[in-house]
Amino acid sequence: MKMASLGEFGFIDLVRARVHGPRGLLSRGIGDDTAVIECPPAGSQLLWTVDMLVEGTHFDLSYTPPRQLGRKSLSVNLSDIAAMGGEPAACLLSVGFTKQTDVAFAQDLMDGFLEIAGAYSCPLAGGDTVSAPQIVMDVTVLGVVPAGEAYLRSTARPGQLIMVTGSLGNSASGLEALKRGLSREDSWKTLVSAHLDPVPRIKEASAAREAGGVRSMMDISDGLANEINHIARESFAGAVLWADRIPLSGACVEFCAKTGVSALDLALYGGEDYELVFTAEAGDAQRIAEAIQGATGTTVTVVGEVTGAGKGVKLSAGGQESDLLPRAYDHFRTR
Ligand code: ADP
Ligand code: MG
Prior knowledge:
single chain; alpha+beta; seven-stranded mixed sheet; four-stranded mixed sheet; 37% helix; binds magnesium ion
């Protein structure tokens, strides 16, 4: 069956039937003119974020299965909540389907979305359903953070160490594997999964908060080079990244060796890893890294240091320092 036959209200009924009742701060969800949310407890603040995914710009349906797309559409928003050091509270989903979209596609998309909503206690509170010339998803997430304690980009200071969770470049190599039709090869499974189904680092951020001592944080959605430039600019600081410390997975290194791509380039400029980058005083770094690793199993690596503003943002490789430019994907420019 096509969406044209099911219709907007048929689809909303399908979604509604799969969503549970009140939960956490959400006291009324789908079915009324708006959702009703309880005020957050005293001593906390709300986080509020939105991210839009458009077919052709952010994903290609020839290699993106709908279930993974549904999962990713929420995961990338949860990654922003994690980067602020918060916990998810509820989400909204606006979605555009074409008249020719199969209902099975729409259902798989919702399966994926609701899996992540359930896994991270982020109930679907409502949304909008429209017909569109291509698939569009616009996801809003509300989160909660202890008042005054959100992790900002503007609070890095010279002398702090720069750390990242997980390994970088997996998503970009997974995308490359998908584009080259290599995604079925077992060796690249983890890379493809990193691209299609990134894991939001909510638990890692929560372990970091428990440990205490994080001074600034953001998620790595556009490549580490870009994000470090953001932190440096917002903090009126400089930074140096140590090339040989940047964590690369074995699969990424192997894939890059086979395909003649630079693994370091993918780690620095590739994007969509959705890992966390954060800073901490040198005396706190090891303790925070161990707390995150202990609680989640996710590795944490020191990759550089915050420096003075006059120093600029540098990459140190083989004893040489060069400028590290924010060469991320820009939607209105081509590289
Ligand atoms: P309104 O016209 O008041 O915006 P709609 O008819 O668009 O209401 O939606 C009816 C209900 O279904 C609302 O509670 C809305 O939040 C919910 N809803 C619509 N589309 C979605 C969706 N894609 N996911 C979740 N809830 C949805
Ligand atoms: Mg509406």
